[in-house]
UniProtKB/TrEMBL annotation:
It catalyses: GTP + H2O = 7,8-dihydroneopterin 3'-triphosphate + formate + H(+). Homopolymer. This is GTP cyclohydrolase 1. The keyword Nucleotide-binding applies. It comes from Candidatus Dehalogenimonas loeffleri.
């Protein structure tokens, strides 16, 4: 449960600590506003992303399904600055041929993005949620993102892209499955 009062108090302390005046007109409502925003952008903390996959269909489909270029914004847990980009997800249904509504894959992305994150773990959590929720033959996740902590501060390398992946089941075991996925998401 997100404690908006505690967030607002902390933001007020931080504004004072950077030497600004939290009582000046422009900042007076900022602590509460940031608290409401945190409730929105960290809404995935207590959720199990596999729950997003409960509504499925046994279509008997046994070929690869891909949803690519799913846009997301998340917050890097090191600096609490955004990192943003796209996720590509592919899976091959299991022996029951169970598939989910395509939007449910994007819901999994939303759930894991709305936590303090690192990009590697985000890929892992998406892949593991699909394994748990769908029991597929295999799943592949590739994420390409730009990190504000590397563009607006620190090393300042705008345009540099971080790529991470997580492969499970047939995507990890079979080079041909992996190659099919990688060529389709290009
Ligand atoms: N592996 C990984 N690293 C990340 C991610 N997001 C941010 N980082 C890195 O986290 C690291 C934190 O490094 P520190 O040395 O503790 O912090 P810092 O002094 O602010 O580091 P600089 O960014 O190099 O200035 C940095 O190298 C960031 O680039 C991510 O999603 N995955
Ligand atoms: Zn960072």
């Amino acid at each position: 449960m997100i404690d908006e009062k505690a967030i607002a108090a902390a933001v007020k302390t931080m504004l004072q600590a950077i030497g600004d005046d939290p009582e000046r007109e422009g900042l007076r409502e900022t602590p509460e506003r940031v608290a409401r925003m945190y409730t929105e952008i960290f809404a995935g903390i207590d959720k199990n992303p596999a729950d997003d996959l409960k509504v499925g269909y046994e279509l008997g489909h046994r070929e690869m399904v891909i949803l690519k270029d799913i846009p997301f914004h998340s917050m890097c847990e090191h600096h609490l600055l955004p990192f943003s980009g796209v996720v590509h997800i592919g899976y091959v249904p299991g022996t029951d041929g169970r598939v989910v509504g395509i939007s449910k894959l994007a819901r999994v992305v939303e759930t894991v993005a709305r936590r303090p994150q690192i990009q590697e773990r985000m890929a892992t959590e998406i892949a593991d949620a699909i394994v748990e929720g769908l029991n597929p033959d295999g799943v592949g996740v590739v994420i390409a993102a730009e990190h504000m902590c590397m563009t607006m501060r620190g090393i300042k390398k705008p345009g540099s892209k971080v790529l991470t992946s997580a492969l499970r089941g047939g995507f990890a075991k079979r080079a041909a499955t992996r190659a099919e996925f990688m060529s389709l998401i290009q």
